[in-house]
Amino acid sequence: MKQRIFITGISKGIGRAIAEDLNRKGFEVYGTSRSPEKIQNKIEGVHYFELDLSSENSIMKCVESLPEIDLLVNNAGQSQMGPAENISNEKVREIFEVNFFGTILLTKMFAQRMRERGAGKIINIGTLSGSFAMPFQSTYGSSKIALTTWSLCLRKEMKPFGVHITMIEPFYINSGIQLEYICPEDSAYKASADHVYRIRNEKLDSAVSPAELVHTINEIINTKNPKGIYVSERKGRVFRFIKRLLPDSTVEKLTLKSLGLKY
Ligand SMILES: NC(=O)c1ccc[n+]([C@@H]2O[C@H](COP(=O)([O-])OP(=O)(O)OC[C@H]3O[C@@H](n4cnc5c(N)ncnc54)[C@H](OP(=O)(O)O)[C@@H]3O)[C@@H](O)[C@H]2O)c1
Predict the structure, then answer these.
(1) Among candidates 60, 33, 37, which has minimal Cα distance to 178?
(2) For the segment 126-156, what is each residue's pLDDT rounded down to a tens digit?
């Protein structure tokens, strides 16, 4: 029987690239969007479902209508930038609702089914930038770091049941990612935040294609015992390696320097 794969957020970007690749390879692919009816160029053969991760009702309804799933890919997420001081707690909750609370609720529902079956894989997409604590990404970074810690705990709990939990942490992928930027005109951080926002967009524009992450997904599918964390791009793997070798104070200086900040 064909392996069944469920991927959140396949309307565009990385999620779409994963869905296209696995569909082409003969997997039975199920995927989501908040508005599947609005997707113009649906992938032939893929089953589309409606899912809004900020709504518990939507999550329950979606999971209940799905068959048994062999691999869950938690790809959907909301990206956000701006000075921490200027981001309301309401906005922080909104981002955590999607990137953390909604994602873990969905994961728990699949985890239970997989545990009862004694098999399954779950891949969560985080971000490498979280562990570098990039300035003006406090909300997005912390929501993804929370997901990483949660996933690594779950991984250890589920291992005896034959269920494998894995994180993929991309750094910069040219996916056309939708990035919300909040910075009031009178913010004390305006000049540096605008600068970092511009640099980040330039890095994204010149980054590798989603194919690198798709390659990592295939590696995990074809591995019996996947690792806890994969960094999808070569450049990201080099940064992660360097971070392990250097003192925190040096990593902090290099992080600021990479964004053109001199303080
Ligand atoms: N691109 C990068 O450089 C990069 C780096 C690190 C991590 N990531 C992570 O990789 C994942 C994919 O990123 P991407 O670059 O492909 O971003 P994207 O192009 O902005 O796509 C995001 C996807 O998430 C879905 N989504 C957004 N809000 C949602 C919600 N409330 N409920 C359910 N689905 C929602 C969107 O679907 P609809 O709008 O159709 O609902 C869309 O398919 C994200 O988790 C992102 O944080 C990306």
Answers:
(1) 33
(2) 999 999 999 999 999 999 999 999 999 999 9
Residue 62 phi, psi dihedral angles, 5° rounding = -65, -50
User: Nearest-CA neighbor of 104 among 96, 92, 114, 116?
Assistant: 96
Give the DSSP letter of residue 181: E
The minimum-distance atom of ligand 1 relative to the CA of 128 is: 6
Separation CA 74–CA 110 (nearest Å):
11
Q: Whose CA is nearest to atom 1 of ligand 1?
A: 173
For 5, the token pair is 């794969």
Q: Which of 21, 60, 72, 75 to mutate to test the pocket of ligand 1 (most atoms within 8 A of CB)?
A: 75
Tokens 């600021």 belong to residue: 256
| pLDDT per position as a tens digit, 55-103 | 999 999 999 999 999 999 999 999 999 999 999 999 999 999 999 999 9
Q: Please provide the CATH number assigned to the domain covering 4-258.
A: 3.40.50.720
